[in-house]
Amino acid sequence: MPVKLIQPTPSAYNYPLLIKHLLHTPKMYAQDQEITYQGKLRYSYRTLFERIGRLANTLAGFGVESGQTVAMMDWDSHRYLECFFAVPMMGAILQTVNVRLSAEQILFTLNHAGAEVVLVNREFFPILAAIAERLTTVRKFILITDEGAPKDVPVSLAGEYEALLAAASPDFDFPDFDENAQATTFYTTGTTGDPKGVFFSHRQLVMHTLALAAAMGGSAGQGRFHREDVYMPITPMFHVHAWGFPYLATMMGVKQVYPGKYMPDTLLRLISEEKVTYSHCVPTIMHMLLTSPHSVEVDFSRWKVVIGGSALPQALALAGMKRGIDIFTGYGMSETCPVLTLAHLTLDDLQDTPEAQAVLRSKTGRPMPLVDLRIVDPEMRDVAHDGQTTGEVVVRTPWLTQGYLKAPEAAENLWDGGYLHTADIGNIDPRGYLKITDRIKDVIKTAGEWTSSLQLEDVVAKHEAVHEVAVIGMPDPKWGERPVALVVLKPDFEGQVTEHAIRNFSAHLIETTGISRHGVLLQIVFVKALSKTSVGKINKRAMREERAG
What are phi and psi of 507, to 5 degrees? Predict the structure, then answer.
């Protein structure tokens, strides 16, 4: 039977899903709501709206047009929030630069994305100095500073951010355009090779924001995000739009707190002084805050925290709950915008013991609205939802990336069978809670960042005493996972070289090769042989089980 299409009335407004439309509601009732940067700078949403217009006029004055890329290099700040809106609202593309990558990787991402204007915090001038002469598309640099003009400037600057905004008009006519237009891009490090560009459209970001609002509001009481909350991100704004929460917080008109560079004392002070009630972070940050000597002075009883990036250990969940924190897991990945599931508890669950609650809070959670999530076998057949049978997590939802920027070959298997393949292994229990149990690839996630086991193996193998090496990820209460290198020594070196010596050798190389800085956590363990499959391949799963056993 043919589907009947609704024909729009010629005079009706064809409402595209654009980021600018997220501002309609806060403009109606949150004009006087507060946004603060480090508790030192404060302004209202009314000022935010004006600054978004000023930034757009500034960029337009530098020749930024629809489809061009503007890159941002800053810590979490009100300036980043302004870029989240102004750049895509004018039809340009915002590149959020991962400032924790190596200088060579940052160079690659800027050139690959074709960034034409770069807004850069003076703290990253050393990186800029190392790469400026090899940037192929950048034509303007805008200075960001909290401390006045720097003395040593590695590039010619078009101006300073605050001075440029002050001189610009707050009035900008943000146009309508196709909701499928690209809005943002950022780069994920992956396991091998160059970083891959992940990109999202206006439609995808708006749909993710609305679904996140529905999921947070649908909880009976635990983990809810509402208009009376005070929001502070503790995952970088350069990483998947700080999990999309700044868009949600702005749409809902809540008070927002931006901490700048993450320092434990600063975060704890802001939680206390600004009465922060909602955040998201990786387990390492939570562990760092809870073990800080200053944490005993902080009342956490109002604080709701989504934990992602790596698994939430039950012990950490319990430690947080004992301090009054409403702590629970969220799950997603760079390619999924990112949130797919949330570990919300029912009212009945909240009557259980803390230990029983910690089991659920540490699971990966239930799918958000509009998320079609499955656990499948290699033939894409659904496996039983019994909490035991495992398979690959595959997903469909309106906000998933369609591929990788300028690299269609990198996404060749990403959408096999019409579902995005996460490369994560998990199970679903009868209540619909997902639990990730393993990864198809042997990438190691430490403190929410990916570290390639293959790259680490290459480093360790450079030591003259190493015969064979396999690097696996093992659970760690502080870091989430810690890389462990299982090393078989050459016969002539047995008893002649120590694990400590190889670790120091590897740590030095790790710091100079662009591998994630968390690779220096590498632990060395001498073994007589590596587990292998029947065809001679290294069996890392067996080695993880042996180490855990």
Answer: -60, -40
Structure tokens at 167: 């001189």
The residue assigned the tokens 């090393």 is 487
Q: What are phi and psi of 79, to 5 degrees?
A: -65, -40
Alpha helices in 36-102 (DSSP H): 45-61, 78-89
Q: Is residue 546 predicted with pLDDT exceeding 60?
A: yes
Which one is catalytic: 303, 399, 450, 479?
A: 450
Higher pLDDT, 402 or 185: 185
pLDDT interval class at 536 (50, 70, 90) = very low
Task: Evaluate if residue 192 carries a pLDDT over 70.
Answer: no
Query: Would you say the pTM of this structure is higher than 0.85?
Result: no
Active-site residue, 450 included = yes
From the candidates 364, 445, 446, 479, give the one annotated as an active-site residue.
445
490 is catalytic: no
SS3 content of the chain, % helix, strand, coil (to 5): 35, 25, 40
Residue type, 136: T
Determine the CATH number of domain 19-361.
3.40.50.12780
| 370-439 and 444-548, same CATH topology | no
Q: Is 335 a catalytic residue?
A: yes
- Residue 363: active-site member: no
Structure tokens at 216: 């947070």
Class of residue 542 by CB neighbours under 10 A (exposed 0-12, middle 13-18, buried 19+): middle
Catalytic residue (one of 82, 123, 335, 392): 335
- Return the CATH number of 370-439, one of 3.40.50.970, 1.10.1040.50, 3.30.470.10, 2.30.38.10: 2.30.38.10
Residue 271 to residue 384: CA distance in whole angstroms? 43
What pLDDT shows up at residue 14?
87
**Residue 424 near residue 418 (C-beta atoms within 8 A):** no
